[in-house]
Design goal:
The protein contains nine helices and twelve strands. The protein has 271 residues and is of the alpha/beta class. Helix 1 links the parallel strand 1 and strand 2.
């Protein structure tokens, strides 16, 4: 039976850990706050409290946490001025620890924020330079992981995460003169995230880069207006159509590689 360690058991990592445990896998999970340790234990997940800075990894038995076949890295770059330097320093420390462990496969949860708004459809084959600091940090870490020879890495670039307690209607409710109303959005439901990760593990889809985004891309105006309406909030007011900046994330590669159909292909049906 494969052992899986999930570094970062938050909004996505915790339900993922629960799902993999129900699938019969041995699951270790990390949190950065001690009050969350007991929650993992109650759900059958072997808990570890771990913190990673740019200078050290601290917490519970790091070698024990990494004594697994598969490591899922699931924590975003910290929002700070030196985001690229800090995040790559964190990952340098983590990679050094992975090299000393039994981990053979790494799944890195990245983001479609690595792609700039090119006003067209985007696939994994596109060559680009990220425009945002978070995207630059993620691309740098992706390249660090892919350059390693001691383990195989798959990069999974998720679109905006939606589902359950994340209510997008609150994001723009009551705001006025909101820009880019006609721009298509790129989102993915938590259930699809978990199912895709599960299939990557089950099918051994390593040494890959995948986009993961719902098939249908409603406009920003359409999505956030309906989202606010559904929960009874003041509808956002959008500025007149102008030069909308956008991107459309194409997920054909992961669907074909895994034989996967999205549970929520239309984000409007999640509201």
């Amino acid at each position: 039976m494969e052992t899986i360690s999930i570094l970062g058991c938050g909004w996505l990592g915790l339900p993922l850990a629960e799902h993999l445990f129900r699938e019969g896998l041995s699951v270790k999970g990390s949190v950065s706050h001690p009050q969350k340790v007991e929650l993992l234990r109650q759900k059958g997940i072997l808990p570890y409290e771990i913190q990673i800075t740019d200078t050290e990894i601290t917490g519970d038995d790091i070698p024990g946490f990494l004594a697994s076949d598969i490591l899922i890295i699931n924590f975003p770059p910290a929002r700070r001025e030196d985001i690229v330097t800090y995040h790559t320093a964190q990952m340098t420390l983590l990679i050094d620890a992975i090299k000393k462990s039994s981990v053979r496969y790494v799944l890195f949860v990245s983001s479609t924020s690595v792609y700039p708004e090119l006003n067209r459809e985007i696939t994994e084959a596109d060559q680009f330079e990220p425009s945002k600091g978070s995207g630059k940090a993620l691309i740098a870490v992706e390249q660090m992981l892919q350059s390693q020879t001691g383990f195989q890495t798959t990069i999974l670039r998720f679109a905006g995460l939606i589902g359950y307690d994340r209510q997008p209607g609150r994001f723009l409710a009551g705001k006025t003169n909101v820009e880019n109303g006609e721009s298509p959005i790129n989102v993915i439901h938590q259930d699809d995230c978990i199912a895709l990760i599960t299939e990557i593990i089950r099918q051994g889809a390593w040494n890959e880069v995948f986009n993961a985004c719902s098939d249908i891309h409603p406009t920003r105006k359409e999505f956030y207006t309906l989202a606010a309406e559904k929960i009874g909030l003041v509808l956002p007011d959008f500025a007149p159509s102008g030069s909308n900046q956008f991107k459309i994330i194409n997920s054909d590669k992961i669907k074909h590689r895994l034989g996967y159909s999205f549970k929520y292909p239309n984000p409007l049906e999640t509201l």
